[in-house]
Amino acid sequence: MAGNREFYYRRLHSLLGVIPVGIFLVQHLVVNHFATKGPEAFNRAASFMENLPFRYFLEIFVIFLPLLFHAIYGLYIAFTAKNNVGRYGYFRNWMFMLQRLTGIITLIFVTWHVWETRVQAAIGAEVNYEMMANIVDNPAMLAFYIVGILSTVFHFANGLWSFCVSWGITVSPRSQQVFTYVTMLIFVALSIVGIRAILAFS
Fold it and tell me: CA angle 114-118-119, nearest 5°?
């Protein structure tokens, strides 16, 4: 019975990492990328997101609660996983270890980012270009954001590979190999979008 429960928890954890959390990540990166077109373009995009209908419902039930479950159960997986890169060193073993490591880094980064933006907005601050520019004006914070973005995007891209395997979408070794290249391209593409966006604020 406990084994079945853990199986379903892992399936749910995997699903939520892609839908809706992964979709939100891509959308968030795209909105932030408007910063490359200047402050006004970013502020318009941010304002559009701020004024979506049922925004609080969407934030709580489509973003924060799924993210909270994914994060908490992800920590359980990370700290109970048996990493064996020292003994075997195969590519997928390294990806397994990096998935757990980037999950922890991503959790720290996302928690801090939510504190600096959403929590501050809840107590009266305005989420706009100036807010982000002030945050990354500090070189240490800029470096922290770059590491956080790369970690988050890697965790999503590699998690997408695991999702397709665990849900039976990529079953054969050939399909898994091909999808490895696809997820690498996703990692590179989203990293470029994210890094260009954060550098546009600096």
Answer: 90
Q: Name, in order, each residue with C-beta under 8 angstroms of 107's C-beta and a sequence gap of 6 or more.
A: 71, 74, 75
What percent of the chain lies above the pLDDT cut of 70?
95
* Tokens standing for residue 39: 């402050």
- Token representation of residue 65: 């609660």
CA–CA separation, 58 vs 23, rounded Å?
Answer: 13
Cis status, amide bond into 20, omega within 30 of 0: yes
How would you label 70-108 residue by residue, b for 16+ Cβ within 10 Å and e otherwise?
Answer: bbebbeeebeeeeeeeeeeeeeeeebbbbbbebbbbbbe
Tell me the per-residue pLDDT of 66-82, one tens digit each, with 9 for 90 and over. 999 999 999 998 888 77
Q: What is the pLDDT of residues 13-51, one digit of tens each?
A: 999 999 999 999 999 999 999 999 999 999 999 999 988
What share of residues in the chain are helix, strand, coil (percent, to 5)?
A: 85, 0, 15
| Rounded Cα–Cα distance for residues 84 and 190 (Å) | 29
Maximum separation of any 2 CA atoms in the chain, in Å? 55
